[in-house]
Design goal:
rod-shaped; alpha+beta; disordered C terminus
C-alpha cells in the first residue's frame, strides 16, 4: 500500500450531525420503500406467468384422459375380493374405414381388457387412466369388448370410453353405462367373448365421472403403444391343427393296423418254420428209415442169389434206385428244413454235393470258397432255385464236357452271392445249345424267378464257365440273441432276432 492510503484509512472519521443523519434516513428510506412496493406489485404477475404452462399441460392431459368417458358402473352388489365381468357389443358399418380409434379405461382396483376374444392389456392402479390405440383392431362388422374387473376392498367401479373416428367423418362413441352386461366371475379362465346366460344382468350405474369416492381423479394418464392385430399363420389356425390332428390320428391307426399285420405275418412265418422243421424231421425219420430198411432187404436178397441169376441183376437195380431215392430225400429234407435257410449252410451243402457227385466220375473237383461266409438268412425259393441250377450245371459238365477238372467258386460281391461252375472241357457254342435243348433255358428261368442272373461263357475247345448271381437280403440289426434246444440232437442252437 501507499503511505498516503494508509494515512487516509486511519484518519479520524468526522462526526455526523443529527441534521445530516435525519436527511439520510429520509432520503434513502423513501427510495427503499418505493422499491419494495414495486417488487411486491410485480411478483404475482411473474408467478402467474410461470405457472401458466404447467396449468395448461395438466388441463390438457386431464381432458385427454376423461374425454369420451362414460359413467362409473359395477355389479348389483359390491364386496371385497370381488371379480365382475363386463360385456359390450357394437358394430362398425360395412364399407366404412376406421381412421382412428382410442380407448380409455380404468377399474377400481384392477382389470383385464379383451377385444374380440383377445387380451389387449391389464391395469392395477385405478387412479391412472390407460389409453390404448386400437385403430388397427377396428374393422367393419361386429366387435365384442370384455372387461374382467377386480375389487380388492371397499368400492368397486369401471369407467370406460371408446372413441372411433371413421374416414367418412362419422364418429362412434362407446361409453360405460347401463347398456353393458355384467356377470360374476366363476374362477375359470375367461376370454372376454361371452357371459354365462344364467347369471347375466345389466350393469348398475354408480354415478358420474367425479362421484364419491372418485371426486379427485384421475392422477395420471398412461399411454400404450398402438396395438396390432395378432397375425395367425396357417399352421396356427384351427383348421390346420384339426387337419394335423386327423392326419396324426390316421397315421397312428394305420401304424397299429400295420403292426397287427406284421405281428400276424411274423406269427405265420414262425408257424411255417416250425411246420417245415416238423415235416423235414418226419421225412427224415419215417421215409428215411423205410428206405434204409428197403435197401438192406434188397442187398440181403441180392447176396442170396447166384451171380448169373437174373434176379440178382434186378435186386441190384432196386438197391441202386433206393440209394438214389435216399439222396433225393436228403435234398428234400435239406430244402424243407427252415434251420438250413442261411448262406453259410447253402455253401456247405453245395460243396458236399459237388464232391459226392463228381467222385464217381473222372472229373477232379476243386473248391474256391470265400472263407468268411456269413450266416445271413437265405430264403427257401432263392436257395432251392440256385441249388437246382448249380446241380444242372454239374450234371451237364459230367455228361458232356469231357473235362478232367472242375472249379466251384462261391463268393460275395456287395449284396449279391455268386456261384461259378467252370470246367476245362471241350466247350460248346451257347447259341446252338440254347436252340437244341432245355437245360440252359431252365437254368435261366430259375434265375429269373428269384431276380438272379445266369451267364454262360464258352467256346468250342475252350471249356465252359457258368456264373449264377442272386441278390442277398440286407443284414438285419441284431438286438438280442436267444438259445433254443434242437429237437433233433438235443444241442443248443443260437437264434438271432431283430
Amino acid at each position: 500500500m501507499k503511505s498516503g492510503s494508509v494515512r487516509a484509512s486511519i484518519a479520524p472519521m468526522q462526526r455526523r450531525t443529527p441534521q445530516s443523519f435525519l436527511k439520510f434516513i429520509l432520503r434513502h428510506g423513501v427510495c427503499g420503500c418505493a422499491g419494495w412496493l414495486l417488487l411486491f406489485s410485480f411478483f404475482p404477475a411473474i408467478k402467474t406467468v410461470a405457472d401458466e404452462p404447467s396449468t395448461n399441460a395438466t388441463a390438457s392431459w386431464v381432458f385427454t384422459a376423461t374425454n369420451h368417458l362414460g359413467e362409473w358402473i359395477w355389479d348389483t352388489n359390491t364386496f371385497d375380493k370381488q371379480t365382475v365381468r363386463f360385456l359390450k357389443t357394437f358394430e362398425i358399418p360395412v364399407g366404412q374405414r376406421v381412421s382412428r380409434a382410442t380407448l380409455h379405461i380404468t377399474v377400481d382396483n384392477g382389470y383385464t381388457l379383451f377385444i374380440d376374444g383377445d387380451e389387449i392389456g391389464r391395469g392395477s392402479d385405478w387412479r391412472t387412466v390407460t389409453e390404448y390405440d386400437v385403430t388397427q383392431l377396428m374393422h367393419t362388422g361386429r366387435h365384442v369388448i370384455g372387461v374382467e374387473g377386480f375389487n380388492d376392498r371397499l368400492e368397486g367401479g369401471l369407467i370406460f370410453g371408446l372413441h372411433v373416428e371413421l374416414a367418412s367423418q362419422e364418429v362412434i362413441d362407446i361409453a360405460s353405462d347401463n347398456t353393458w352386461s355384467t356377470g360374476p366371475g366363476d374362477g375359470k379362465k375367461w376370454n372376454g367373448s361371452k357371459l354365462n346366460a344364467a347369471t347375466v344382468r345389466p350393469a348398475i350405474v354408480i354415478g358420474p365421472m367425479h362421484t364419491h369416492p372418485w371426486e379427485i381423479w384421475p392422477y395420471g394418464l398412461a399411454t400404450v403403444p398402438p396395438i396390432h392385430p395378432v397375425v395367425l399363420h396357417f399352421w396356427q389356425r384351427g383348421w390346420f391343427q384339426l387337419l394335423l390332428f386327423c392326419t396324426a390320428a390316421a397315421a397312428l391307426l394305420f401304424s397299429f393296423w400295420l403292426l397287427t399285420q406284421l405281428s400276424a405275418q411274423a406269427k405265420a412265418q414262425n408257424f411255417l418254420k416250425v411246420e417245415r422243421v416238423r415235416i423235414a424231421r418226419d421225412i427224415h425219420d419215417d421215409l428215411g428209415a423205410q428206405l434204409t430198411q428197403l435197401l438192406l432187404l434188397g442187398e440181403v436178397a441180392q447176396r442170396e442169389q447166384l451171380e448169373s441169376s437174373p434176379a440178382r441183376a434186378q435186386f441190384t437195380q432196386i438197391c441202386d434206385h433206393a440209394r438214389e431215392l435216399a439222396h433225393a430225400m436228403d435234398e428234400v429234407v435239406w430244402a424243407v428244413n427252415s434251420r438250413r435257410d442261411t448262406v453259410r449252410d447253402f455253401t456247405s451243402h453245395v460243396c458236399k454235393y459237388a464232391q459226392n457227385f463228381l467222385r464217381a466220375t473222372n472229373i477232379r473237383c476243386r473248391l474256391d470258397v470265400e472263407p468268411e461266409i456269413p450266416a445271413t438268412a437265405f430264403d427257401l425259393p432263392v436257395r432251392r432255385n440256385l441249388f437246382l441250377a448249380v446241380k444242372e450245371a454239374l450234371n451237364n459238365a459230367a455228361k458232356h464236357s469231357q473235362a478232367d477238372e472242375l472249379f466251384l467258386r462261391i463268393y460275395r460281391s456287395g449284396q449279391k452271392l455268386s456261384v461259378v461252375v467252370e470246367d476245362n472241357g471241350r466247350g460248346f457254342n451257347p447259341d446252338e445249345t440254347r436252340a437244341a435243348g432245355n437245360g440252359m433255358t431252365n437254368m435261366a428261368q430259375r434265375m429269373a424267378e428269384i431276380d438272379g442272373i445266369c451267364e454262360v461263357q464258352s467256346q468250342p475247345g475252350g471249356g465252359c464257365l457258368m456264373l449264377f448271381t442272386v441278390p442277398l437280403p440286407p443284414e438285419r440289426r441284431r438286438w438280442f440273441r436267444r438259445v433254443e434246444n434242437d429237437d433233433e440232437g438235443g444241442k443248443k442252437i443260437e437264434i438271432s432276432g431283430s
